[in-house]
């Protein structure tokens, strides 16, 4: 009681509060808040890559930063409640069909492989002229590079669904994307067999309407560790799938 109550109480009694006008008090606090915000912003900009990766990996930290957590939570609590998302996604281009030449039964089966490696920084892309070559195996090949592409966000949960939606960066609408089907569903409506193979953190709702598979340690013990599989496992899985379809 003496250490944790009596002595601290003596310090509180000893402190004399200096009274000042309301205007002066508000201005002084405003200056302190502004200066603190500028200093904090400067530190964040200097270490943005590390901070952004940390915040994406550990979402719980967002609720531990004071006073930001209290301010954001208060705004969210007072904001009008949004209508719940539909239980079933709204169809998108359900009347899609193949062109006549593509649906010709005499043509050789066609295979399209889309490799999604989202949130790559354009500034660090070798094909965009980055000083350190980060795409050595793509250079010298018949590759078309689009240098002016902007992701909808820096997290997989935002950027991946946006890639397969009819919306772009400027028209991004999270509720629309979550409540509507994706490009994969449109391909399925057109009669194309679609399969999604994943080796990381899931498809974030993009592949819900099509056949999908998450690669596991049991299937590729040499290429998987810590609950995740290397990209080479995707290549091996694709090889296995092609062996089942001799037409390719």
Write the layout of secondary structure elements.
Layout (H helix, E strand, L loop, with lengths): L1 H13 L7 H25 L1 H10 L10 H11 L77 H8 L10 H6 L3 H7 L5 E4 L12 E4 L9 E2 L2 E2 L1 H14 L4
Parallel strand pairs: 1-2
Antiparallel strand pairs: 3-4
3D architecture notes:
With 248 residues, the protein is mainly α. 38% of the residues lie in helices and 5% in strands. It contains eight helices and four strands, in the order αααααααββββα. The protein has a two-stranded parallel ribbon with strand order 1-2. Strand 3 and strand 4 form a beta hairpin. The longest helix has 25 residues. The chain is elongated. It starts with a helix and ends with a helix. The mean pLDDT is 85.
Summary, kept brief:
The chain has 248 residues and is mainly α. It is built from eight helices and four strands.
Q: Count all strands and give the number.
A: 4
* C-alpha Rg (nearest Å): 27 Å
The main pleated sheet reads as:
2 strands, parallel
Strand content: under 5%
N to C succession of SSEs: HHHHHHHEEEEH
Q: What descriptors fit this protein?
A:
248 residues; mainly alpha; two-stranded parallel ribbon; two-stranded antiparallel sheet
